[in-house]
Structure formats: structure tokens, C-alpha cells
Amino acid sequence: MQKRYAVFNAKRIWSKSLLVSILFFLALVILGRTFGAYNQSQLASVATLFIGVLSVTLLTGASGQISLGQGAIMAVGGYAAALLVLNLGLSMWLAFIFAILIAALAGLLLGLAAARLTGPYLAGTTLVIALAIPTLANRFESTFGGDVGLSVDVGNPPMWLSKLLGEIGIEQWQLFVAIPFSALALFGVINLSRSRTGRVWRAIRDNEVAASLHGLNVQRNKIIAFVCASGLAGLAGALYGFRGIVGPSVYPIDLSLALLTGAVIGGLRSITGALVGTVFIVFLPDLIGKFTNVFKVSEQISNYLPALVSGVLLLLTIVINPAGLAAAGSHLLKRRHRTK
Amino acid sequence: MLEIKELVTEFASVRALSGVSFTAATGKITTVIGANGAGKSTLLRTISGLERAAHGSIIWEGLDITKLSVEAIVRTGIAQVPEGHAVISQLSVAENIELGALFRKRKARADVAKSIAEVYELFPILFERKSQMAGALSGGERQMLAISRALVSRPKLLLLDEPSLGLAPLIAEQIINVINDLCRSTGLTVLLVEQNANTALSVADHGVLLALGKVVAQMPASQMIADESLRAAYLGY
Amino acid sequence: MTQFITAFFSGSSHGAIYALVSLGLVLVWRGAGVVNFAQMGQAMFTTYIASQMIMHKNSYWIAFVTALLAGAILGSIIDFGLMRPLSARKNSALLASESMRTTIPVIASLGVLGILKALAGIIWAGEERGFPSPVSTNGIKFGTTTLAFTAFDLFVIGIVLITLLLTTIFFTKTGMGLAMRASALNPEVTRLSGVRIKSVRTLSWAISGMASSLAGLLITPSTNLSPNTLDLLLIVGFTAAVIGGLTSLVGAVVGGFAIGYVISFVNVYSSPENVFLAILIFLMLMLFLRPQGIFGAKEVRRV
Asked: Domain C2-89+100-124+147-289 belongs to what topology?
């Protein structure tokens, strides 16, 4: 009797997440077709960085481990994919799959080193690692292309697609490359989060000692969280790099911080929050640009205004409602339901 | 005079104190006894401000201190010697004592020096071990140090949480006697929480018996010692 | 031999600065339970203030003192305006989670760092600018040889030693210092002794702010000043603090000098590119072999 219920529930999770992912996929495609080139490129960034923010939601929101090095893991994925395509002639799609695996391996190493640390120790260590990995690019300049980096791109859309949809600009093709991976990542994370592993992570996040007293292998599960989050980050990094360059300037420490900021502001424990946060970090500069144009703000200020606004919103989120916009939103929805 | 009125303290959903009321008379020793888990420590911690009362009130010398912060309560003349780790092991004996008088230093420098000299007179062994780390002291010496730290704040009300805990009976008795002498000679009001009911009741003026967060009985200590049915029912002997 | 001397002197003067950074981090960790990732952002900001004053024809020393005061004020503002409200929040499900309670302050300090950097960019533009030194930065002449050791290096070491002396006197001989030590060791007993712990906490932030301002003033002559230049100093300071033991003030200083020597020896005997890796390896070794640091007491790892 018990087993049948388990299967029944699993089927429901799979089907619901499949539905959500397909809707997500379609929504992005439709928007992509209607947007102009600039916004297509922005949307591609959303699709790509969504995967990156999901990795933070998974690592920090679900398993409670803070990492300031997700940007560096993205770099690992980007470099892996680029090297595979450039040096081994692999197809881009295959290279992306390998990028996930290689990044996951990096996550395994990171997890082995860091999963025993807590809070500020973990943050500091991942910060050091995040700053150290880009220097490897300079250290082994011949392989990694040093400061300049490696040039890769998503290539041209296949014939059959151009025949089907007509002329496809490079921005739109970049978007179309990112969308299926984004939807797949969404599918994976929803299922992972509702699965037993997800519940174990949340148990560990809330009270490690209690979790281990219940027989959960805390270390192993924390490392698994690192591996999964890193796989996601690697995928995001590969997609991100294939917009033109894989190099240290593409994956600065600000990227790690942006992912974290987006995840927190959107809602650290919510997948919807991850999407909200991603939209925020991608479109904030545009929004602020409109504002500064209207008010004729100097360039000096407008360069740094997005960073200032992000920082202030991050602090406001933490102090007022640490669970982020998504949680505040669902709270409002619940209240409305009740009054009805 | 300390008046406790219908005091309720809750932790999560557990009521550690469910409406405790009694009065501790000025210059007298009132002892609160009861079995483990009766709420005795919670009572002291609520009075000193470490715990926040959910309902009820605490009136000290006419002042309602229920909602005051710990440091404000200390400044009204209440000092608590908490249970267990009441000294800071990594500081020296002298530093532990000095800590207790810090908040008074600015206004009463000379008196602070005087009060420190007084506790050294009271506990000469502490003077001998002035520069040693508090962690190197024996259990009894540590308790003396904790009490000294409280005394240099020149309290009018001393809250003692199980001072005899973990001490050899002889030393525990010594300490309780010191407290008794102090109370009689200086008019210090003492609220003494103890598991060792016998010793406590032998020096106290008034006894309050606590069980499961409620006051089950309160009467002059001499009466409580003599009441055999109470002892059997609540104290197990 | 000259290589060794060069490495030693450079390690000493840089180590002194790292000791300051690490001291600041440990002060706030002990006094407030937060690792302040914004610390070097504060240093950068106050050094910009000093730089502005110097550009407006004020003397170096007036700018110096102003930067230190600004550092103390900025640190106090961060505690008063952000950390106190944050720790007063009790009614969030997120904060009920144990790991979140240690993570949220980290994220908050990162937010402050971002804001300080953005503000510096807005107010003073992101342009890199030099920063003067009050004494010569040329090698000291010893007879006919010029040492790889400058008057400025001596100045740095001298100032840091004076600071350490003052700090030691403060902590061991003053009442406030005692209150700060006590509140880090046992907050409950300290509160029962009538000490206002919240004020003590703010003081920790203020002193730490001053220490980091000093570090910023001492290092920018050699690194130039821009919103991002002091980032590396943060992780070096963090590593130094971990090495010494995040709970020990003495350890912070020892760790600072230790990492200073490691970096300068790697710089001289190996290559500058390997410095980062060296720091990382040192950090990892420390966390694996002795996570509480050389002088630390608390357990950092979970079983």
C-alpha cells in the first residue's frame, strides 16, 4: 500500500514539473520570437543566468551552504566546453554535456574541501577559491588563453530551423540554444527539490545535529549538493561563455555576487524566486538606464547606480523579509485567498 | 522588597512558570525549593531579565522591572549568581571581580575599590589566587568568585541559583553560611534557589515550594522543614 | 642572501598590514559573531576620503587622522544601522534555520561591500589614483648599498607595532577592554555584571573600522586606489585570521605576519603568479589540519 502511494506521488511530481518546464520553454520561445535583437540577447542572458541562480538556490537555499565561488564554477564549465570544442573538435551540444560533468567534478572537489566548514569559513574559503581559479587562466596562458581568453560562439543555426522559421539572427539563435538547457535545468531542480534528497538537504540546512542523529549522512549529502549545484553552474558558464569569449573578464567575482544577490532578492528558497532574481539582475541596468536618461544623470553615477541599487535592495530584503520577493508574493496571495 | 505576581514564562509552547506569586521580604533570606524542572532557574532568570516574562509582573522596591533589560535591572541593585558557569574561566580572578564593578566605576571609584577589598576579606583564598585564571580554581573557589563578582556591584537583592551544585557538602555549607552571615550583617535581601532543601531551609526565613511551574506552598522556613507530608510529596524524603 | 633579506623585509612590512586587517576581522568576529566581508570596502572608502583631503591641500597627517575617525564612525554605523536590526529580527522562518543564521550576516556584509564600492565609484569615479606616502619610498642607503627596504616600510612596521601596543594596553589594562574580552568569552555573565553588551559590540565594530582604515592608508601607496584594489587584501586578511585562529587576537597578528612571509617568499623565490595558489594551499592545509588555527579555541568543523 505504501509503495503504491510513493509511486503515485512520484508520478505526480514528474508530470507537474514536466508541465511547468514545457510551459517555461514555450514562453521563452514565444517571447524570443516577438522580441527585438537586444531583448533577445537579454532573454538569452535570463535563460542562461537562471541556471546559475538555480545553482545558488539549490546550494544555499536548499542545503544551507553559502558559496561565493559559483561564478568560478561557471568559469570551469565555460573553459571546459571551449577547450573541448576548440581542441578536440567536439560539437557544441556535446561539449555542454561534458561541461556539466566536469563542473560537477570540480564541485565534488570543492565539496570535499568545503562541506565540513560553516558560515563565514565556507564563504571565505569559496571566495579565495573563486579568486584563485581565474588566476589559473593566467598561470597556464598557453592552454587557457590568459587574460584575453578563448573565442567561441554558438555558431550558425541549422538549415532545417532557418527553413522553418525564416531568418534567425545570432541573438535569437543564442536564445534558442539556451532555452532547452534552461528548461531542462528547471525540470531537474524541481524534481530534485521535491525528492527525498531535497528533503534531506532541507533537514540538514535546518539542524545538522538533529539530521545526523536521525541517521542522515550529513557530509555525503552536503557534498552531493555541491556536485549538483556545480553541474548547474558549469552548464550556465558554458552557455554564458559561448556568447563570444571564455576568459577571466567574463567570470569576475562580481558574477558570483550577482548570482547570490539575485537569488536572495528573488527568494532564496523558491524556484520562482530564482527566476524573479534572474530577471532582476539582467534587466536592472536597463531599467536604471531609462531612469538616468530621463533625469539626465551623469555617466559617472549611472555606471555605478545598478550596483548601488542591488546592494541596497539586498540589504532591505535581508532586513525586512529574508525569504525574498517570492515569499512576500506568495504571502500576499495567501491573504487574498483567505479574504475571498 | 521583591514582589512576584502571577509570573508566566514560556519557552516555545512549554510553560516553565504558570502564574507564580510570592514576596521576598527585605533583608531576609527567601528560598525557592523544588524538584528538577520545577522552574526554579527560570524564575531567577526571569527576574534578572535573561528571560522575558509572557505575563505577570515583578515589582522590586516599588519599581516594575518586568520589562527592563538585564543591564538596567542590574543597576536597580539586583545581582544574579547564575547556575553552573558563573565565572569566566579565561579571565583571572581579579578580572572576574573587576567585571562585576565595571558599571559602577565612573560614579563611585573609591567605593568600587572598597567593595573589592571587602570581598577579598570575605574570601581570603581569592586574594591569594588573584592573578590565577578562574579556570584553575576548584569548584568551591569558583562559586566564591561568582558570588564576589555579584557582591562588588553592591546589590540590594542577591539571586543565587543553586550555589551548592556540584560542591562537596562541607564546602557547600560553608558558602551558605557566608551568605547567611552577609544577609544578617548587611541587610542584604537574598533569594536562594536550591535543590538541597535541608541546608537552604536551615538558614532561610521564608520558604517557597515550586512544582511544575506553580507555587505549591509557601510558609516560614521553620514550618516548612517540620512539614513532613510536604517533604515526602515534593522533595522525596 | 640578498633575496632572502628582500623577502624578509617585504614580508615584514606587508605582514604588518595583513596583521591589521586580520586583527580587524577577529575583533568583529569575537565581539559580534560576524565575519565582516565589507571590512576592506570600509578601508577603501575612508582612504578615498583621505585622498580627497590631500588633494585639497590638507596635510597627510590631518587626512590620516580623519580617515581613522571616519573608519570608526563607518564601522559604528554598520553595526547600529544594519547588524543590530538584523539580530533583532526573530519572526522569520528563514532565520529559524540554523545554517541561515550564520549565513545571513555574511550576505549582509557582502551587501555593504557592494554598496560601498558603488558609492565610491559614484562619488569619486572609478578612476585609479595614487596615494602619497609621508616618508620616502626609496631604498634606504646603507653606505654604498641600497637595501630593498624603504623608509616607508619602517614607517609601516613602526605604526603597526605602536597600534598593537596600544591595542594590548587597551584590552588588558582598561575597563572597556575587559568588558570587550568578557563579552566575547561569556556574554551572559557579562550582561549579569551590568555591562551594556550592545554598546560593547558597536565599539568592536568601531575599533575594527579604525584598524581597517589604517591598513588601507598603509597599503595604498603601493597598490594605488580604486574601488576594487583592496579586495585581495580581504582574502589575505581572512586567510591570516584563519591561520592564527579566528578567536584569537594574538593569533590574528601572528597569522598576518605568517602569511606576509609566505607571500613575499613565494614572490621572490617562485613567481608572483603563484601567490594566489600559495594562499589557497595554505588556507586549505590549515582548514584540514587545524581548523581552529594556531591559537584558536573553538571548533570550526562539524562532526
From this structure: ABC transporter involved in vitamin B12 uptake, BtuC (1.10.3470)
